[in-house]
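Module 6 notes. Inverse folding takes a fixed backbone as the condition and produces residue identities as the prediction. Think of it as a translation problem where the source language is geometry and the target language is the twenty amino acids. Below is one complete input and output pair. Work through it position by position during the lab.
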């Protein structure tokens, strides 16, 4: 079968649009879609330094690859930052992949570890938690946010870019809904960006399966071994739920994504009055101190 856009053989069938694309036209479509999201929300401005959070997984390496291509032709610069959680056996492979890939792309890489920043590896903090109600990923994600903030501040970045895709976004929406955390739904809106350092998700309108194909067809060397804690979180169940819906109702994830954009905008406007600044770190939150500062204080209290 031929590609719908050129004379090459088709390599990818985009079910939700009915298109058949060759590898090159597919990759170009991902580049264009990413550029469109960036310009729609004015995510990167002229002359800015972008800190790209790179874990070694397909999403973050694909994002680094695309932002590097864009930075070669646009007026912004990128630095890659990898956070070492201290998960035995898992992170080492990723660090090697990221280091090699950054060398190949000629992108500067900085590595920060939980141990250096918080005096705790993830494994150590999991042993210290009082019960298992707080999942590994909740602790890990909180630490990672703070670690990335710290890294971006230290390197003087204006923006933090992460590889979160459309699937991540709709999963997060459902997780926030199921936990009753409506403030967080408002914070998901990409137009809302009043943090000290802007957080951007240039892949937020792209299916996870398309990022996988982009990484595969561009020979990106991503880590395939999942984190040993991955299946502890409800996110895995929700991912499977959306994937099975998409199988039967093609395009349903796109519809959900559009609904999330609308709902988060409304939630954002209505919760704007409650906006406060964390007394400890200056980031936006709904109480006196933010969830990151709270978690770190609590864990340290339990240790002493
Ligand atoms: S799966 Fe969870 S514990 Fe593992 S790296 Fe990701 S957030 Fe951290
Ligand atoms: Zn083509
Ligand atoms: Zn804080």
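Target side of the pair, the amino acids:
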């Amino acid at each position: 079968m031929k590609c719908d856009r050129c004379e090459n053989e088709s390599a990818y069938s985009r079910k939700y649009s009915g298109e058949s694309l060759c590898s090159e036209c597919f990759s170009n479509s991902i580049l264009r879609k990413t550029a469109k999201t960036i310009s729609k929300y004015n995510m990167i401005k002229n002359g800015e330094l972008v800190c790209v959070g790179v874990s070694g997984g397909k999403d973050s390496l694909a994002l680094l690859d695309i932002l590097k291509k864009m930075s070669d032709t646009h007026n912004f610069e990128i630095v890659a930052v990898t956070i070492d959680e201290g998960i035995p056996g898992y992170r080492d492979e990723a660090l090697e992949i990221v280091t090699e890939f950054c060398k190949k792309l000629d992108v500067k890489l900085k590595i920060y570890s939980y141990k250096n920043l918080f005096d705790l590896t993830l494994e150590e903090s999991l042993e210290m938690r009082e019960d298992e109600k707080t999942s590994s990923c909740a602790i890990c994600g909180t630490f990672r946010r703070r670690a990335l903030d710290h890294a971006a501040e230290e390197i003087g970045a204006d923006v933090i870019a992460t590889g979160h895709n459309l699937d991540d976004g709709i999963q997060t929406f459902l997780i926030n809904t199921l936990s009753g955390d409506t403030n967080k739904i408002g914070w998901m809106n990409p137009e809302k960006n009043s943090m000290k350092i802007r957080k951007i998700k240039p892949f937020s309108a792209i299916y996870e399966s398309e990022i996988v194909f982009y990484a595969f067809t561009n020979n990106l060397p991503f880590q395939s071994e999942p984190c040993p804690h991955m299946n502890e979180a409800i996110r895995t169940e929700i991912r499977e739920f959306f994937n099975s819906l998409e199988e039967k109702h093609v395009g349903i994830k796109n519809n959900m994504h559009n609904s999330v954009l609308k709902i988060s905008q409304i939630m954002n406007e209505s919760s704007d009055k409650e906006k406060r600044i964390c007394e400890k770190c200056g980031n936006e939150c709904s109480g006196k101190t933010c969830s990151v500062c709270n978690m770190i204080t609590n864990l340290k209290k339990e240790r002493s």
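Reference fact for the lab report: The longest strand covers residues 77-84.
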